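Need MEDS domain-containing protein's 3D structure for a figure. Predict it.
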Amino acid sequence: MTAQQPSVPAPFDHRMAVFASDEEFVAAALPFLGEGLAAPGEPPPVAIADPRNLDLLRDTLGGDAKDITCIPHTDWYTGSAANAVARAAAYLAAHAGPDGRIHLLMEPVWSGRAGRSTRETTEWIRYEALANPLFAPMATTALCAYDTRTAGPAVVAAARRTHPDTDVYQDPVRLAAELDAVPLPLPPVGARRLAQPHAGAVQSWAQTRGLPAADAELFATAVAETAAALAPLDGTALLWGEAPACVCELRSARRIDDPLAGFVPPPATGPEPGPGLWYARQVCAYVDIRDDTEGATVRLQYG
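Structure prediction for MEDS domain-containing protein:
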């Protein structure tokens, strides 16, 4: 008898739906959720959306709504793009079926809220792009929902470049490199210089700039962990800004190159690399990395 070969999980299925009315949202959501309900071996599908859209689904489904896990998107997207990556990974580990099988309907908060800055939008486009290699080993099926009444044409056009089911999909590593090609603004002339970014010195400085003690400690730990991950450092650390937007810039003597740096958690066992950039991305609002021929510049902004 021939031994049965183990099944190979399907790749991460990352889709996009664009809607301009309540009816179009329901028309896109219902078949997707029904697909999840019919998938053998999968737990109930999950709808992560604007509470108003969750109400639309409940009203349409009636008693069948009990078969769908509904999560307000304000409870899911609560911080940076890296926080969203960590939350998704934790949810899949706790709730998905074998190989990560589950259907997720996902409507980011920023596609339903006006006033996101260009900087915030760029970070979320990076998240959408990097989701493809980050979750590639998983058999998860995700449908990202964009409301043209609030997201705007530029956001929708950018998001289309991050979803493989569109005709303008772009390689995620190349897209991330394109986002990182924009030069960082120069540090202010009066930036504080530290020969060594020790956590105590950074925490003390941050508190003088208005960060509460607990936040200053988180920021200082992020700086120290990042400095350890980047060693050897090349030059002094620079500090500037006022609470909540306290900034530290570090210079490494080596390039980073990896567009997923800090988005993948460090191994639970092994040598002592420390949480490094992973911790920094979880704590800070922004972590900007720019490689050049002589090394890398990493800029951390707390708030």
